[in-house]
């Protein structure tokens, strides 16, 4: 379903400037933004995926992974199409890197909450692809979720501008964010984005100003972000900027997409990452995907 987007400004010659994420796309009439799901039509920016659901499942909250918020409860999880990163190690690349065929079921916000309640979910989560680019839909759903006493979860790559984050914050309980690397050049190699520092800034804002529950995940990819220097940088960022109580999930990579030639992450590497996190003062470091 097409819906006029939030967070954009109109420019001359029917161009628009999308303000949702750090790409800051200037989009000509008849063209889409980098994410592929926000389109300029006659000087109006539209979301092309409002209510379009590619994946829907009742999951344990621990599967997100979120271990320290409402444990042993279940969330109704939904995903759509597209993303504002181009991660070469994305396990859900079939939906996240789709830019043309948004063939899913339309589920209104009201129906989504109805399904969650019918399945006895205690919360709802937007996951499987990047919820930021689904912003208008997730915002409407989150408002209804809070009215129905459901907690809310963003499973996000963190590539979002601060004003949208602040708009949804009153209705968003959990910000489960990927920190994919520490050094900018590694981040760009993994995800092909220009401003990885914006991920760190949004995470700090979510935790310290907006008071969300934050958990961090790093998918440890051999030869790319598995060095002691990268892992120590991430661990120290979490400890110093987010707090020692913020959990860090270090998870096993499996070969896919651009990195099919790599081997799965050795368990020893994940154990090393856990030790690094604990040595940096983090209280909770969890190994995942094993």
Automatic annotation (TrEMBL):
Cofactor binding note of this UniProt entry: Binds 1 [4Fe-4S] cluster. The cluster is coordinated with 3 cysteines and an exchangeable S-adenosyl-L-methionine.
Q: Which GO terms describe its molecular function?
A: 4 iron, 4 sulfur cluster binding; catalytic activity; metal ion binding
Where, in this chain's numbering, is [4Fe-4S] cluster bound? Answer: 83, 87, 90
Key words of the record: 4Fe-4S, Iron, Iron-sulfur, Metal-binding, S-adenosyl-L-methionine
- Do the record's keywords include Metal-binding? yes
Radical SAM core domain location is 68-283
Q: Which cofactor(s) are needed, names only? A: [4Fe-4S] cluster
Entry annotated with the keyword Flavoprotein: no
The protein depicted here goes by the name: AmmeMemoRadiSam system radical SAM enzyme
Q: Which InterPro entries match?
A: Aldolase_TIM, AmmeMemoSam_rS, Organic_radical-activating, Pyrv-formate_lyase-activ_prd, rSAM, rSAM_sf
């Amino acid at each position: 379903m097409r819906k006029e987007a939030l967070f954009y400004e109109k420019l001359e010659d029917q161009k628009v400037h999308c303000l949702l994420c750090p790409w800051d796309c200037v989009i000509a009439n008849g063209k889409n933004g980098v994410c592929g799901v926000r389109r300029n039509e006659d000087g109006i920016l539209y979301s092309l995926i409002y209510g379009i659901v590619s994946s829907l499942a009742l999951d344990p909250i621990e599967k997100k992974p979120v271990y320290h918020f409402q444990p042993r409860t279940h969330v109704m999880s939904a995903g759509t199409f597209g993303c504002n990163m181009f991660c070469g190690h994305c396990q859900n690349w079939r939906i996240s890197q789709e830019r043309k065929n948004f063939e899913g079921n339309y589920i209104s916000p009201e129906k989504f909450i109805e399904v969650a309640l019918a399945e006895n979910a205690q919360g709802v989560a937007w996951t499987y692809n990047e919820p930021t680019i689904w912003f208008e839909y997730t915002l409407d759903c989150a408002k209804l979720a809070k009215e129905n006493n459901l907690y809310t979860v963003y499973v996000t790559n963190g590539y979002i501008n601060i004003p949208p984050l602040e708009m949804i914050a009153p209705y968003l309980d959990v910000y489960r964010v990927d920190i994919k690397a520490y050094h900018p050049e590694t981040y760009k190699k993994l995800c092909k984005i220009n401003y990885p520092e914006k991920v760190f800034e949004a995470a700090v804002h979510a935790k310290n100003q907006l008071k969300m529950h934050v958990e961090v995940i790093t998918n440890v990819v051999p030869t790319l972000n598995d060095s002691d220097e990268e892992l120590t940088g991430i661990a120290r960022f979490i400890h110093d900027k987010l707090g020692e109580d913020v959990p860090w999930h270090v998870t096993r990579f499996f070969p896919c997409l651009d990195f099919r030639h790599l081997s799965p992450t050795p368990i020893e590497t994940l154990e090393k990452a856990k030790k690094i996190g604990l040595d940096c003062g983090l209280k909770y470091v969890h190994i995942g995907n094993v």
